[in-house]
Amino acid sequence: MAKVLVVTSGKGGVGKTTSTAALGAALAQMGEKVVVIDFDVGLRNLDLVMGAERRVVFDLINVVQGVAKLQQALIRDKRLENLWLLPASQTRDKDALTDEGIGNVVADLRTKFDWILCDSPAGIERGALLAMRYADEAVIVTNPEVSSVRDSDRIIGMLDSKTLKAERGERVEKYILITRYDSARASRGEMLGIDDILEILATPLLGIIPESQEVLLASNVGSPVTLNNAASAPARAYTDAVRRLMGETVTMTVPVERKSLMNRLLGRRAA
Amino acid sequence: MINLRRLIGGRTASAPVARERLQILLAHERGLRGEPDLLGVLRAEILAVVSRHIVVDPEKVTVKMDRSKHVSTLEVDIEVPEGVQRSFAVAT
């Protein structure tokens, strides 16, 4: 049965789009049929991070308004044949997205895919609400930093009240994905630790993505970090997170970059 | 000079400060969105009881709650104005 998963955070710049691309690609690499949807109308970036920016013809609003068919708007990834992108509109008015319209698109996608990943815009406005509206599960991307944790708490409150599941008295499964984590700084007491964040947010942990230069390298070339360098620390962390989403029990670790020169050279060349 | 101080004394960890600030703030904000604001209620009621006996500045009353798996603590910090301390000490 298809699962709708929203990647959200409240705060901007914490890694929602990076995480959507990485999780989507990792799921596809494991054989799942995946579509990633960009809900950030006017500020779309998932296409760029996925390296599909020059292939966008139709977008989500076109589909919602009936200008284009779903099949015309879906863009198939060039590297993974079971990974698809539904881009946001860069030019249209975001009010063109309606609750009912999104509901129809999501219902249609449910019949075609195993996973529907919704990349939420920042904020707590209409776009963010629509992105989470039909979710079965939610990944709350959180940086170990006070403003991000506060906004995550706010988003958790909205997931528990504003989603269709919540209104029906059901529960959206929520997970925290900590990004930009620096173990060394946390151990020196300079950064909120994992336990601190989980205790404050009272929500289970999906994974810990270490702060890494690989994330920028991957976005530079338009490739999800799990595809660009699968051996890198963030890629392994995202892959572990995906295995947990699929129900596997995977020991929680913070992957570190492999140190040997040989591995580094090989890793960079593979990119 | 600053570097030397850091080398000798070590830097004070700021993460516990972040954690505490968040816990207080979120307890309050959760109250605003409909969950019962336990700390707010406690603070108001404790303040009312203490005010019957001592004049206290409401600004100088803090109530904190720390919840962990095994132990939860409630910390009430009331700053008592000058002059009241003696009679207060006798009473206890």
Question: How are the secondary structure elements laid out?
Answer:
The complex is a heterodimer of chains A (about 270) and B (about 90).
Chain A: E1 3-8, H1 16-29, E2 34-38, H2 46-49, H3 60-64, H4 70-73, E3 75-76, E4 83-86, H5 99-110, E5 115-119, H6 126-133, E6 137-142, H7 146-159, H8 164-167, E7 173-181, H9 183-187, H10 194-201, E8 205-210, H11 214-220, H12 225-228, H13 233-245, H14 261-270
Parallel strand pairs in A: 1-5, 1-6, 2-4, 2-5, 6-7, 7-8
Antiparallel strand pairs in A: 3-4
Helix pairs in contact in A: 1-13
Chain B: H1 2-9, H2 15-32, H3 38-51, E1 61-67, E2 72-78, H4 85-91
Describe this structure in words.
- The complex is a heterodimer of chains A (271) and B (92).
- Chain A is an alpha/beta fold.
- Chain A has 14 helices and eight strands.
- Chain A has an eight-stranded mixed beta sheet with strand order 3-4-2-5-1-6-7-8, sandwiched between helices.
- In chain A, a hairpin with a 6-residue loop joins β3 and β4 (83-86).
- In chain A, α1 (16-29) crosses α13.
- The mean pLDDT of chain A is 93.
- Chain B has 92 residues and is α+β, with helices and mostly antiparallel strands.
- Helices cover 51% and strands 15% of the residues of chain B.
- Chain B contains four helices and two strands.
- Chain B has helices at residues 2-9, 15-32, 38-51, 85-91; strands spanning 61-67, 72-78.
- In chain B, strands 1-2 form a two-stranded antiparallel sheet.
- The longest helix of chain B is centred in the N-terminal third of the chain and has 18 residues, at 15-32.
- The relative contact order of chain B is 0.11.
- At the A-B interface, α7 and α10 of A face α2 of B.
Strand content bin of chain B: 15-25%
Q: Helix amount of chain B, in percent?
A: 40-55%
How would you classify the quaternary structure? heterodimer
User: Structural class of the helix and strand makeup of chain B?
Assistant: alpha+beta
Number of helices of chain A: 14
